[in-house]
Amino acid sequence: MLSIAWAPLYAHPLPANHRFPMLKYELLPEQLVREGTVPESAFFRAVPPDDATVLLTHDADYYQRLRHGSLTRQEERATGFPWSTQLFEREVTILGGTLECTRRALLHGVALNIAGGTHHAFRDRGEGFCLLNDQAAAANYLLGHPELGVSRILIIDLDVHQGNGTAAIFEHEPRVFTFSMHGARNYPHRKERSDLDLPLPDHTDDATYLALLRETLPRLLDEHQPDFVFYLSGVDVLATDKLGHLSLTREGCRQRDQYVLESCHQHRLPVVVCMGGGYSVRIADIVEAHANTFRVAADLWS
Q1: pTM of the full predicted structure?
Q2: Whose CA, among 150, 248, 265, 269, lies 20 to 30 Å from 257?
Q3: Angle CA 264–265–269, to nearest 5
Q4: Are 271 and 293 spatial neighbours (Cβ–Cβ below 8 Å)?
Q5: Is 189 a catalytic residue?
Q6: Domains of the chain in sequence order
Q7: Model confidence over 134-184: pLDDT tens digits?
């Protein structure tokens, strides 16, 4: 049975222009339970981790200023969010959800976070609606606890935006291989250097995208030999997305998830999946595309 991290994220007050994308965090669990993909018992409530775990990844000065609302105006503007206590709680809870998913994936093979994938957060700053980097923090937790048996990690970032914060955090960490396949013209305008970046031209379609993924992922698994995988399954690759420039269909997005998760399953690699972005005009397109990720996982790890 799947383990799924959930927190009442939409209940936290946000500006009106951010509320629509946040609806998916409430609608997606409802959809999964209603259609029978997972029972309600599959969900666990995410809670914040201890400070020491966060500080394995983030600078203490930045973390304390974020906690107490002492960011400069420029720093706050870069995050895209006005600061509030509720916003801090939201971000640290997302990180806690991914951390607990990591523990559960070690036991059961897979775990998913309804939120997460905050890959634009750097050690010392936030950017692009990301304040704390949840997958980086969970990866550092694994490396900091050798008794868990994880010494090599692969981060597969298939959000339409490059995982710039994640790439910078692990730039000098050979035990973590960062792979980002993203729109070449999408945010961020200044890209960092992942271990492997595959920037895609505008309007890349299903066939081109999937062929490149199928050519690349087996090689990474063979060469890096990871013990653990983090997968960022953003659905902003859809042609319907307002912020993306790619042209995947919902079926193409589902096949992408199928290929990544089947590869992890076949190699017996524990995997944590985080949702990442999704900004289509119709909320139904966002929820359905995200739901496909969970359906694929439920079929594989049933």
Answers
A1: 0.96
A2: 150
A3: 55
A4: no
A5: no
A6: 4-300 (3.40.800.20)
A7: 999 999 999 999 999 999 999 999 999 999 999 999 999 999 999 999 999
